[in-house]
Amino acid sequence: MTFILGTRGSALALTQSGMAADQIAAAGNFEVELRTVRTEGDVLTGPLSQMGGTGVFAATLRTRVLDGSVDFAVHSLKDLPTAPCPGLVVAGIPEREDPRDALIARDGLTLEKLPAGARIGTGSPRRAAQLRLIRPDIEIVDIRGNVGTRLARVAGFESYGNQSTPAGDCDAVVLAASGLRRLGFEETVTDYLDPTQMLPAAGQGALALEVRESDVEKATELAEAIRAVDHAPTRWAVTAERALLARLEAGCAAPVGTFARLEEQTLVLDAVVANPDGSESLRHQATTSDLSADGAKTLGEKLADELLSMGAARLANLTL
Has 79 been annotated as catalytic? Predict the structure, then answer.
C-alpha cells in the first residue's frame, strides 16, 4: 500500500518531508509518496507578518488532506496556527531538531563581534525585537525567501542564491538552526544563539504530522504509523509553548519567544514578550511536574497569564 504525503516544494520542506516519510514508512511497513502542493505563502511576496502570518503555508496543505488529494501532511510546527483545524489531528510530532536561532555573518563574526551599524536580515518580528534588545546599535533588514536566498544576502555567501534576488547587502542573517542542519548547511553558522540569550519561536525545530480525524478515530494503518513516531518529551514541550502563544493570542507578527524542555522530571518553560522596537521586554519562567499533554497546556496558559499580569499585552501590542 502507498500513502500520499503532501508537502511544500521548497528544498527545506522536501527534505523535512522526506525524513518524515522514511520514518513513517518504516513504522508502518508501507510506501509513502511525496506530492508537492503550492501554498498561498509560496505565491505571495510581502512580509509574512502582513500576509496573515505563517498559517498561509499550512492552509492549502490542510485543504488537500481534508479533500482527500493527499493522505497526510508535514508542517514545520512553528508555521502551524495554534487554533485546531476541524477534521484534522496532529497525530505525530517526531523528536525535535535543534531549536536555536543561528547567526550567519560575514568574516566569521559572532553577534557580539559585529560592528555598530551592522545590517542583520530577518523577516521575524520576534527575532528583530530580541536582536535589538541584545544589540541596539544594529540595523534590522526585512528579508524573506528560501534558505539559499536568505544566505545569499550575507556578504561572502552570494553563491547560495541566484542572480534574480538581492545578494551581499547584509552583514548577517538569522535563521533557524534546524533548517540549516537538515539541509546540511551547518558550516555557514558563525554563532548559535542560545535560548538563554534569544528565545526561539514556539515549536521551532519540530515537525507536525497532520492526518484526518477519521483516520485517528478508526486507528487506520496510517494513523497508527504516525502515532508510532511521536516523541512524548517533544510533544509536551511544544504543547506548552503553543498553549502560551494561544493564550496570548500572539501570531507571527508578535515579538514573543518561548522554549520548553525537560529537566529530569520537570518541564521548564521560558517566555519573552518584547516591545517591537526592542526597547523593553518581559521574560519569565514556569515549571510543572505534570508530564502530560494536559499538564503542558496548563503550564503554557499559566505562564501566559503571569506575563499578561505583568503588562505583556501593552508591551507587544497584543489584541486580547
Answer: yes
